[in-house]
Design a protein that fits this description.
Radius of gyration of chain B: 25 Å
Number of domains of chain B: 2
Structural class of chain B: mainly beta
Number of strands of chain B: 32
Structural class of chain A: alpha+beta
Largest interface: A-B, 46 and 46 residues
Number of helices of chain A: 6
Strand content of chain A: 5-15%
CATH architecture of the largest domain in chain B: 6 Propeller
Helix content of chain A: 55-70%
CATH class of the largest domain in chain A: Alpha Beta
Radius of gyration of chain A: 31 Å
Strand order of the largest sheet of chain A: 2-1-3
Distance between the termini of chain A: 94 Å
CATH superfamily of the largest domain in chain B: TolB, C-terminal domain
Largest sheet of chain B: 6 strands, mixed
Helix content of chain B: under 10%
CATH topology of the largest domain in chain A: Fusion Protein Consisting Of Minor Coat Protein, Glycine Rich Linker, Tola, And A His Tag, Chain: A, Domain 2
Oligomer: heterotrimer
Number of domains of chain A: 2
Chains: A alpha+beta (206), B mainly beta (427), C alpha+beta (154)
Chain lengths: 206, 427, 154
């Protein structure tokens, strides 16, 4: 029995020792994980049109890639690898990127239409003098897909009657926001079927 | 008026459940367009009182450039009662508000009965309706009352067409006149003429008296003049110089400047028992006091920091606070009627302009763009500032509305006009 | 217990001195009577000296040139019964502040004369602020001429 126990003991000792060695070997693995996280960062950097990236991070990347590609082509120089690495990253995240592009296009459309609506209201809203107080009032607008204003209501009036009156007067001058016709139907339904106008007065001379 | 580049924010919320919100910060530079339809006269009334009244109202409402009007010959119809009024006639002309009215009757004593209405064309509702009785001799006053009510309904601010203005005219090197007139410049009255300078007029809160400085005895001396009787009373020469009198909101005392052996300080002077109480005591110049609307504080100019700057002092605790730090000349401060902001003369690169500052804010804002602007005075409703400025060697009065939309200058007088003081409202 | 007692005593003193301060500020003034006319009636003494000293904008300090001129005045001033100093400003800035500034300028001249041995009793000081300009134009030259103290001897 003793013998068995001693051998088991040695076995476990060896196992422990090996696991220790393996754990040491596993550091490079962790390193790879890091490069992966760098990849994500790198992607986002591209997304933000910031080509400038962290040189050491790029170097490690290039090294890794170089190791892999050296088997295929030893002549590959650093420039090309970086291009390949970029390409690879994009390929990895291509789905992600497409959705992001789509989203940013939607976002852009919404911003564009919002800006026009904002401008049109600003051009007809005769803001009363309210120097002594900052005011805020919210109007809920209900649009038809044609851009026709079906309904509006002052859902959060300000404390100042003439400020509220001026908003209602401005809203009464408005009949159509035909700008929404340029939007995809889905986008319209999601964002402009019902939306809020928030009228603000800072209480300063503008 | 330099308008800020309006930075418009758009909040687009990405979360699924929240609703799109578009922020509107900037209003239009356009003015509300008002149609003043000639008032009608009931058949049998010979004199055309109606159109006199509507013309007066139109003149009043346009006085400070706050509105745009529609010319009478551009109107599609001339309704004088609600039954004949069609919104579309005005909507197509881009009118925002229409004023109509009618002289219903004139009795044997010459008393007119007038009815009037105001319509918001965009909202298609009548927002004001009224009736007034007055003598045919007082058509101007009747018009002012109607103008005030229309103005109040449209702007939400107190009407100011029955206020007055005090000012000093310097017609030649040796003639100075203390004058008052209606706010539209009519009915000018000369209170006092002197060969020596006159300065610093200020209205008592009841509008019955004016305090001012006169040099008639060789030195700056404060007088109080009763408008009804014309009687003048000197506040006995107390020091070397007595100047810058301003009435307290309750009308019982004056804040003024007395200089003993050449050191001007702010004092409170009780009118009833002629007693002086010292408010500031500093070897620098302390002058140009003015009361806060709640009469708890007094704003004044002091050069204690090396250049004229504005300070406020509590009348009870005498605690002082510096109010301005921008540039090296900020003087003659006055509070807005709400007490939350101040307006004053701001010197900037050799130009002296009218500026305002919210007491809660660090920033000042210059309102005028001429270079020798001074003596600003504010309308009792806090919406208009009139100030003195110069064109060559001739002084005239300019004005600006605080939304920055309108500038105007008051009719030129025979001589150099200076130091306007806007009267309080009649209560 | 003793330190607390002293503390309370000190506090009481503080409160009392504050109260004293407040009541002290309600001063009763002795008013020097200032007759405006007296020195206008006497005969004006003519001198062949420049009768004006000039100042910088928003300043009341005398420069070397001004002091030099005033030095020359001293013999004449000693002969005179009354010295009238009239302070003025240019049109820039506010009227009431300029009234005080004009007074400041005249006092600066008076102080200089007093230091030089002129009796303060015969000096009369008055300010007109910006109310009586020599030149009515709105330019640097006119402003410089208007920022002055006029000296007249009687």
């Amino acid at each position: 029995m003793n013998k068995v126990l001693t051998s088991l003991n040695t076995f476990f000792l060896i196992l422990l020792f090996l696991s220790l060695i393996f754990s040491m070997f596993s550091f490079p693995k962790l390193n790879i994980d890091e490069t992966q996280s760098i990849k994500v960062n790198f992607y986002e950097l591209i997304q933000q049109n910031d080509i400038l990236f962290d040189p050491p991070a790029a170097n490690t990347l290039i090294k890794k890639e170089a190791k892999k590609t050296s088997a295929i082509n030893e002549k590959t120089n650093a420039d090309e690898t970086s291009i390949i690495s970029k390409f690879k990253i994009n390929k990895l995240d291509i789905k992600n990127e497409i959705t992001k592009i789509k989203l940013s296009k939607e976002r852009e459309d919404i911003l564009r239409v919002s800006a026009i609506i904002q401008q049109r209201i600003s051009s007809i809203w005769i803001k009363p003098n309210s120097l002594s107080e900052s005011l805020i009032a919210k109007v809920l607008i209900n649009l038809a897909p044609s851009g026709e204003i079906l309904n509006f209501s002052l859902i959060e009036p300000s404390s100042n009657t003439s400020f509220n009156e001026s908003i209602l007067t401005a809203m009464n001058k408005m009949t159509f926001f035909e700008e929404v016709l340029s939007l995809e139907r889905k986008l319209f339904e999601k964002n402009f079927r019902n939306f809020n106008l928030v009228f603000k007065s800072s209480g300063e001379i503008e | 008026m330099i308008r800020f580049l309006s930075i418009l924010f758009i909040l687009v919320s990405n979360t699924i459940f929240s609703i799109l919100e578009i922020e509107i910060l900037k209003g239009s530079d356009n003015l509300s367009k008002v149609a003043f339809v000639p008032f009608g006269n009931e058949s049998g009334i010979e004199e055309n009182y109606g159109s006199q009244i509507s013309k007066n109202i139109e003149k009043n409402m346009l006085l400070f450039g706050e509105f745009e009007n529609l010319a009478v010959n551009e109107m599609l119809s001339y309704p004088s009662s609600e039954n004949d009024f069609y919104y579309r006639d005005w909507k197509v002309l881009g009118v925002d508000y229409s004023v109509i009215g009618k002289v219903n009757s004139v009795n044997a004593l010459g008393n007119l009965n007038i009815s009037y209405s105001l319509f918001n064309i965009n909202r298609r509702i009548k927002i004001l309706e009224g009736e007034i009785v007055g003598s045919e001799d007082n058509i101007e006053d009747i018009s002012k009352i109607i103008s005030n009510r229309i103005y109040e309904q449209i702007t939400g601010l107190r009407g100011i067409f029955d206020t007055k203005l005090a000012y000093v005219i310097n017609s030649d090197a040796d003639t100075y006149q203390m004058c008052i007139s209606d706010i539209d410049g009519k009915n000018e009255q000369i209170l006092f003429t002197s060969k020596a300078p006159i300065m610093s007029p200020d209205w008592s809160p009841d509008r019955k008296k004016i305090a001012y400085v006169s040099f008639e005895n060789g030195l700056a001396e404060i007088f109080i003049q009763d408008l009804q009787s014309g009687e003048r009373d000197s506040i006995q020469a107390l020091g070397m110089t007595n100047s810058a009198p301003v009435w307290s909101p309750d009308g019982k005392s004056l804040a003024l400047v007395v200089s003993f052996s050449g050191n001007p300080d702010i004092f409170l002077y009780s009118i009833r028992n002629k007693r002086l109480v010292r408010l500031t005591n500093h070897y620098g110049i302390d002058t140009e006091p003015s009361w806060s609307p709640d009469s708890k504080k007094i704003i004044f100019t002091s050069d204690r920091s090396g250049s004229p700057q504005l300070y406020e002092i509590s009348t009870k605790s005498k605690r002082k606070k510096r109010l301005t730090r921008d540039g090296n000349y900020n003087a003659r401060g006055r509070y807005f009627p709400d007490g939350k902001s101040i307006f004053f003369v701001h010197g900037n690169n050799g130009n002296f302009q009218i500026a305002i500052k919210k007491l809660s804010s660090r920033y000042i804002e210059t309102l005028t763009s001429t270079s020798l602007d001074e003596s600003p005075t504010i309308s009792p409703n806090g919406n208009i500032i009139i100030y003195a400025t110069k064109d060559g060697s001739n002084g005239y009065l300019g004005g600006i509305t605080l939304d920055g939309k309108a500038r105007f200058s008051l009719p030129v007088k025979n001589g150099s006009v200076r130091e306007p003081a806007w009267s309080p409202l009649l209560n | 217990m003793e330190p607390i007692g002293i503390f309370i005593l000190a506090m009481l003193c503080q409160v009392y001195s504050c109260a004293a301060n407040v009541s002290d500020s309600v001063e009763r003034m002795q008013y020097a009577s200032v007759a405006g006319e007296e020195y206008l009636q006497g005969d004006k003494l003519e001198t062949n000296l420049d009768d004006k000293v000039y100042f910088d904008f928003d300043k009341s300090a005398l420069d070397a040139e001004d002091k030099n001129l005033l030095e020359q005045y001293l013999p004449e001033i000693k002969k005179a019964k009354i010295v009238r100093l009239e302070g003025h400003c240019d049109e820039r800035g506010t009227r009431e502040y300029n009234l005080a500034l004009g007074e400041r300028r005249a006092l600066e001249v008076r102080d200089f004369l007093v230091v030089k041995g002129v009796s303060g009793k015969k000096i009369r000081v008055v300010s007109f602020g910006e109310e009586k300009p020599l030149k009515s134009a709105s330019n640097e030259k006119a402003w410089a001429e208007n920022r002055r103290v006029e000296i007249s001897l009687y």
